[in-house]
Every structure is written in structure tokens, then in C-alpha cells.
Amino acid sequence: MAKQVKPNSSKAIDKESKKILEQQERQGLVFGADALLPKKSIDKEIEKHQLRSGREFSIKEVKDLITELAQPYSPMFPNQKPFFKLMYKLCGWDHLNPNDFIKPPCVALWIKQFIYARFSTEILPKLQEKENPFISGYVRKYKLFQFLSDDGQRQLEGFIEDAIKVMEICKSWYEFEIKYGKLYKLSIQQKMYES
Q1: Are 76 and 87 in contact (CB under 8 A)?
Q2: What is the C-alpha to C-alpha distance for residues 148 and 164, in angstroms, rounded to an integer?
Q3: Stretch 94-115: mean pLDDT
Q4: Pick from 157, 71, 53: which is nearest to 115 by CA?
């Protein structure tokens, strides 16, 4: 004998499957709503990022300023520019020659702090990531500016000229740090007490 399906049970199955289909449809509307929105064609490289300091930059700007390989060397701080002469004068280093190739280690730190810091904050770390071995002591094979593009080197020259202008009106290195830092919104450690 063949079993007969009761009409009530088939109605219950139809009712249950209808409920499941409705639930899937609702979920499709909720979770598939993004598919209905127009797609944004955001190029991540041109997307602007804003830092706490208010500076804005994009990955494209960073890539445009930095080259993959080092550029040929030509002095960015030539002896004809009074950058090091003024720095040595403000620091009271009368016993040192500002034209010597080897300079006190703090000079490299100050160049990064006051010159390279004028770029967006992504530039200096990217420059320091470049393959640049030490050749002797703390002297590297390439200068950081050799990894800057032509536009980056032009900007760097402008930053150096700005620093020279501020150095010319200062009487001490500390005064330069304060004035230059305020003028270009750089973070400077101020002394608690004037000496």
C-alpha cells in the first residue's frame, strides 16, 4: 500500500518554504544593498590623508618626490651657501671648519629635524628605508637627497634657503630652533630655563 500524503502536511511544507524564501529575500535586500550603490572608483594613491598637525598628503605625492635609485651626486649644501657657516656661528663652534666634509653628528640630526621635516611626514621614513650602506664610521654611500626626484630636490633647496634666512636674523642656535619651528610649525623641545 502506498502511503498517501496528507494535504495538510504539504501545505505546511509550502508555508515553511515560503517563509524561508521571504527571509532570504529580506537578507538579500539588507546585505546586498551595497551592490545597488554606485561603485566609487577611488584610486588609493591620490586619496588624501590628514595628520594631527593638519598636514595633508597622498601616497602619489610621496612617490612623486622619491626615486627608486639614487640620483648622481651634486652637493645640496655647497660651501658657497652659508648654511653650515651660519650653523657653526650660531652654535659657537669657532674652533671647527664648516667646510670640512666630516661634521659633528648632531648636524645630520638637525638637518633631518629642520630641513627634511618640512616635507610631509611620510618622506623622511621612506628615504631612510632606501638601501644605503655605511661606507665608514657613520658616513653612508648616498646622501638622503640623492633619492629625491627633481621636484623633491627643488623643494629641499627652498627649505635650505628658508633656514638660511632665519639663521641670518638669529643670535644663537636655540633662538633659530624656536623661530624656525614657530614659522614652519615644527615640533621643537623648548628649554625650561634660559641659560
Answers
A1: no
A2: 21
A3: 94
A4: 157
